[in-house]
């Protein structure tokens, strides 16, 4: 007797989609296995994963200081041995001691407070305060295993049924659409305007909000991703103020995905947290409910495998906080190494510390290289026939628009697939380059995009550009109307 | 405008309960702060957390070999330095190299395959195979951040509405009741029989299943915790076979919580996985759907803070596996250190390895001490007036029954609380010992229990026993009818 079948499982699971690891990524894995088995079986010699923001998988090195501290906290017994001083920097040893002192019983193998170790939350709070210039309270911080569980926790709290809506940008990072689907809510889209560099218009927000209301949907929250994923835009302060005002007026929880806060590549833009914007407008706890997400996976650190992240939750009443605490406690706590790393990225070495100079060199090397790579890839896309690509002001991706010839769209339809997915599959099979179709992020109907990360190591970028350019030319030659 | 309030949030969140970190734990935290501020303010000098299975928080040391490997994988750059050989054992260095070779690009800071690094799943599969003597396939393994997310993933898959039921033991570890509540399903209880050492009767299962059916509930799965939490029983092989047969006949997914598989303290009982039992009955993929959960948080390792765990999923069709893969991919992957540790606990040092003897000494020291502590506490409970306590054959807890005098029950009612919660609060305030009321796990109505871990360090056990005994005597003196 079959005990579980696709017909009886939760339909919300069936509805959930996550293109970043979808069909194209599966084909890539298969090709990689084929390449390993038969290195000469393809016209390319490696798979280049531009589908996902996973810097260290493409060769980015971790920040030495962070890893030193993690290793010492994993195995504190060596802190007292003299050989350790030859292997680890003095400030890493000092920091590890300081962190261990903040952990009850110095036990990095114990469950912590379910929101995270208090001393580490103190450090994170101080780091946010130094960044923003407004007070931060450690009890507002919830440390989580990367940002995904934090987003799920908030969606679980806010969504009771499909009558609960969440305003999400289109295009959006599909964690949001996936989480909304899994929790049975309704994604209420607002479209970013590609023509104005993926600008955000409050009139569009109001229109979509009214439209949702007319369908009986109560919009509970507003998602903003800044710097933007997948489109790489960085919001202006004016735009941020408009958003805060809109959320306040409409009574929406503002969910601010700020995981790319360190990834800004243009001198004319700066990162401003929504917390800072909101406080600088004079709004406090009683005015706006705001959740800000930060992760150790992005920035210059790119420590995706460590699963560290946190959210700062403000403007939620004590009774709601109690509910969040309870739900967090069901999962005991997030992993301690991720917690430690989250405290480190919010409190890196300072002037005078032994590691300060090497830390700065590593950080600046990564960020300046990312800026160069973003520019080279942007220029390359803009040189392709029928392709236009906005600047990646921040984050880790480009989201070029491709104007496909009718013939290509028809060919895709014949294969029962969207034109952008058709293009991505062709690109992968011809070059080994993995990108994600725009349909996985949402796009204005009738437009087509791809998301391509800027993360291949710099010395590989020319080859990526040349393979991409050659492929695109032959694709257009085949399908040009 | 208040944007989010307790009246508008998801009622499933409100319904969820998790007593392990509930009211008693909150009081304990407050008392601890008071003690820190004023060390002489209480009649006790420390809080003893017997409410949660968190060994290292109470002083249990980590297994050295495991931590050596983790530290080296966190900071692989030191592998090639000669000083490292003075600080780390040779087999830890070898194992770290071997693990790094299994990770694409040796990048412990990259997202892995969403089910976990393939090489580590190979190691885990081999470990289960060596334990059970039946084949294990790496694609059946899903590595997760501890077991909680794995349980949530399965509940999310199986539960569409309150018409979907999950058969759960009573008493049960409240992760299950919490997860069922969060996913909107119905917990269908089956009662363990305290009189026969928390035995499990198939007639009881059938009765509860029929009862659920008559209420329009479709039971989807059967949860078994072996060794048992909170009651510490270890199932007999005969009993396990009956359970497998029952699940097969009734078409239920068998969810086997086997996280205490290393924690067995009586020579007459052995751990047998449900996978092994099922395969030894001749049942394969098409006969029984089975999920087995294992964690790095329990056993002799007790690495709760690392958040490592996995499930082995068998008897699920390819289409269902695809859905599980998709949901796992939304969260990218579990933390790599937890993944590495999960592979280590399933493949510890072997005869001939440099660390083998010290590893065995550490492991056996912990397990034999836990066995002694279990016995001492069991005897102590059984000496208390009106208390009867079954043997802790395994796991990390005792679940003694307390026959409260009517007067105590009335006094509790006057404080609008259950008698067991009343007792726990009194115990905590008088002694600093934190235990969890049986009502948090479920119990036969009219009976009262507490769950008390066996985890305080051995040298502290006499003091725990004496404080507990004194408290109980004065409690009974106050309330004896």
From TrEMBL, chains A, B:
One of its GO terms (molecular function) is L-alanine:2-oxoglutarate aminotransferase activity. GO terms for biological process: L-alanine catabolic process. Gene3D superfamilies: 1.10.287.1970, Aspartate Aminotransferase, domain 1, Type I PLP-dependent aspartate aminotransferase-like (Major domain). The keyword Flavoprotein does not apply. Residues 105-467 form the Aminotransferase class I/classII large domain. Pfam families: Aminotran_1_2 (PF00155). Pathway: Photosynthesis; C4 acid pathway; Amino-acid degradation; L-alanine degradation via transaminase pathway; pyruvate from L-alanine: step 1/1. The keyword Transferase applies. Its EC number is 2.6.1.2. InterPro entries: ALAT1/2-like (IPR045088), Aminotransferase_I/II_large (IPR004839), PyrdxlP-dep_Trfase (IPR015424), PyrdxlP-dep_Trfase_major (IPR015421), PyrdxlP-dep_Trfase_small (IPR015422). Its cofactor is pyridoxal 5'-phosphate. Keywords: Aminotransferase, Pyridoxal phosphate, Transferase. Belongs to the class-I pyridoxal-phosphate-dependent aminotransferase family. Alanine aminotransferase subfamily. Homodimer. PANTHER family: ALANINE AMINOTRANSFERASE (PTHR11751), ALANINE TRANSAMINASE (PTHR11751:SF29). This is alanine transaminase. It comes from Cephalotus follicularis (Albany pitcher plant).
């Amino acid at each position: 007797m079959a005990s579980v079948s696709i017909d009886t499982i939760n339909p919300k699971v069936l509805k959930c989609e996550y293109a970043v690891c979808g069909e194209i990524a599966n084909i890539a894995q298969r090709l990689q296995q084929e390449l390993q088995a038969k290195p000469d079986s393809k016209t390319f010699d490696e798979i280049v994963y531009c589908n996902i923001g996973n810097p260290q998988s493409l060769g980015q090195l971790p920040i030495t200081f962070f890893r030193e501290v993690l290793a010492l906290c994993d195995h504190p017994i060596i802190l007292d041995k003299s050989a350790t001083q030859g292997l680890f920097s003095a400030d890493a040893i000092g920091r590890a001691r300081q962190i261990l002192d903040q952990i009850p019983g110095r036990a990095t193998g114990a469950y912590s407070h379910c929101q995270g170790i208090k001393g580490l939350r103190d450090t994170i709070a101080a780091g946010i305060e130094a960044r923003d210039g407004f007070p931060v309270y450690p009890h507002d911080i919830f440390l989580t295993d990367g940002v995904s569980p934090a987003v799920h926790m908030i969606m679980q709290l806010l969504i009771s049924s499909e009558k609960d809506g969440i305003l999400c940008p289109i295009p959006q990072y599909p964690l949001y659409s996936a989480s909304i689907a899994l929790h049975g809510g309704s994604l209420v889209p607002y479209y970013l305007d590609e023509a104005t560099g993926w600008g955000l218009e409050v009139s569009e927000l109001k229109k979509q909000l009214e439209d949702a209301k007319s369908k009986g949907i109560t919009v509970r929250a507003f998602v903003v991703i800044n710097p933007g994923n997948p489109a790489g835009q960085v919001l202006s302060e004016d735009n941020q103020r408009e958003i805060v005002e809109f959320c306040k007026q409409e009574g929406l929880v503002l969910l601010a995905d700020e995981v790319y806060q360190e990834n800004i590549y243009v001198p004319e833009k700066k990162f401003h947290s929504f917390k800072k914007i909101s406080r600088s407008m004079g709004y406090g706890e009683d005015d706006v409910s705001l959740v800000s997400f930060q992760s150790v996976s992005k920035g210059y650190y790119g420590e995706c495998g460590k699963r560290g992240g946190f959210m700062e939750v403000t403007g939620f009443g004590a009774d709601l906080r109690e509910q969040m605490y309870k739900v967090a406690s069901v999962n005991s706590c997030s992993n301690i190494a991720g917690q430690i790393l989250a405290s480190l990225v919010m409190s890196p070495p300072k002037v005078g510390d032994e590691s300060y100079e090497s830390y700065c060199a590593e950080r600046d090397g990564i960020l300046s290289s990312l800026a160069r790579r973003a520019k080279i890839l942007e220029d390359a896309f803009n040189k392709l026939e029928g392709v236009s690509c906005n600047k990646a002001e921040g984050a880790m991706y480009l989201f070029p628009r491709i104007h496909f010839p009718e013939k290509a769209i028809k060919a895709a339809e014949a294969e029962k697939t969207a034109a952008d997915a058709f293009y991505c599959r062709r690109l992968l099979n011809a070059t080994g380059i993995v990108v994600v179709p725009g349909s996985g992020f949402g796009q204005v109907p009738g437009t087509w995009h791809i998301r391509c990360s800027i993360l291949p190591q710099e010395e590989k970028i020319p080859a990526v550009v040349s393979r991409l350019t050659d492929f695109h030319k032959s694709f257009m030659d085949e399908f040009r109307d």
